[in-house]
Design a protein that fits this description.
230 residues, alpha/beta, Rossmann fold, two-stranded antiparallel ribbon, globular
């Protein structure tokens, strides 16, 4: 697999393979167009650029990974992004997910616990012209309250339960997409919907495998995950 068309086809195949969980056979057209527009090779180390359009995670700096394109596309789709939305991402990593979101919403705020990754992401986004993304080096468990409330929030590591600070920062009518579960145990990709009256509902989407969002403030380790279609 060595081009964008191959990657898009692989994502579409994974969507069809998981239709029993998703309840549909295709993702939003705008999301797929954004996936096709972002040059994934620019978010990878130079020696891995030739693997950029494989539908699998790949290593980046600081022992972290860039997510599987299917997972990026699915989580973006579940967010139901609108052009005027302001969204929060927890776990910047390579900033590939943030770049995809930037094409679909008005503003992206993204938080990364590893300072080196945050610095690299900020420089990469500036170099590539993604002007509507702002990066912060901090513990993402607590979100980014200064810019709340958010129309949507994406979390790229598994937590044992939904972090209350993130729910509090979610706008009524918004969606929080997060993997829930323990390491080496059952995990589910969860969507948290906040109704206009503030009520919160959870719905499970798909079994997944993510590394954990650790509980110690200031020492959170984040790596993006890979789905396990069944």
């Amino acid at each position: 697999m060595d081009n964008v068309s191959d990657m898009i086809e692989a994502i579409e195949e994974d969507v069809r393979a998981t239709r029993g969980y998703l309840g549909r056979e295709a993702l939003d057209r705008r999301v797929m167009q954004a996936m096709a527009r972002v040059p994934r090779e620019r978010f990878l180390p130079a020696d891995l650029a030739h693997y950029a359009y494989c539908n699998r995670p790949l290593p980046i700096d600081c022992g972290q990974t860039i997510s599987q394109p299917f997972i990026v596309a699915l989580m973006t789709d579940l967010l139901q992004p609108d052009p005027d939305d302001v969204v929060l991402e927890i776990g910047t990593g390579s900033c590939y997910q943030a770049a995809v979101l930037s094409l679909l919403v008005r503003q992206v705020y993204t938080v990364e616990v590893v300072p080196e990754l945050a610095r690299n992401a900020e420089e990469r986004l500036r170099r590539l012209g993604y002007a509507n993304v702002e990066v912060r080096a901090a513990d993402g468990y607590y979100g980014w309250p200064e810019h709340a409330p958010y129309d949507g929030i994406i979390v790229t590591a598994a937590a044992p339960e939904v972090p209350e600070p993130l729910v509090a920062q979610l706008k009524p009518g918004g969606h929080l997409v997060i993997p829930i579960g323990l390491p080496r145990s059952h995990q589910e990709l969860l969507v948290v919907d906040k109704a206009l009256d503030g009520r919160v509902e959870h719905r499970s989407v798909l079994p997944v495998a993510f590394v954990p969002l650790t509980a110690d403030a200031g020492a959170r380790v984040r790596r993006q995950g890979v789905s396990r279609p069944q």
